[in-house]
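Support case: user asked for a sample of complex input and structure output to validate their parser. Sending the pair below.
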Amino acid sequence: MTTERGREVGACKKVDDGITRVFQLLGKRWSGQIVAVLIDGPAHFAALRRSIPGISERMLSDRLTELGAVGLVVREVAEGPPLRVTYRLTEVGAALEPALHELAQWAKAYLLGQPPGGAAPRD
Amino acid sequence: MTTERGREVGACKKVDDGITRVFQLLGKRWSGQIVAVLIDGPAHFAALRRSIPGISERMLSDRLTELGAVGLVVREVAEGPPLRVTYRLTEVGAALEPALHELAQWAKAYLLGQPPGGAAPRD
């Protein structure tokens, strides 16, 4: 068993707690996209919705509430008229920029332009 | 509307296609964690399951099949006895390492050690 264990690098360790938390947070449908749009700057609700094809008003509202609860997004109300609500990333949310940049780079290199159903393994 | 538009950086652009694809792929429950474990090296099914607390055998099997179909993971069978099946990342899967590293760093800096329910905004 000892030699077996030595050959399996992934065998004896648990998955990183941080990675688990990150995917619990950003793995929910739309959450990653919302943060990615807000990286480019604050946006009103309607503009945010237009930026994310397919998201419903209810879903966007729910996700913004969740992202607010965990401290990634803040909601700012500008006194009207007209009263306008803006969403922006906190410092914590904005700190995801390097990670989202890496993910986008990876997708550009390996996913986009690939036929549906798979990026062919190169090795 | 023109001045309004100028103030909303996120208003006129669509979310990055790559980011959308990445979260479709890794946003599914467990997928990100499976890739994160395999970044450390190939693993047998049972070892992989032990590394990810809470995952069921069925779910791990389904996710590995999906990650295989999109070219991130390969399944290798070593002739027995005992016959052993190993999973490892392809070059495409392994190329996620910098992005997963950034996500883990972010989680370490901002999520771990925070009280449940939220990383307090710092600004």
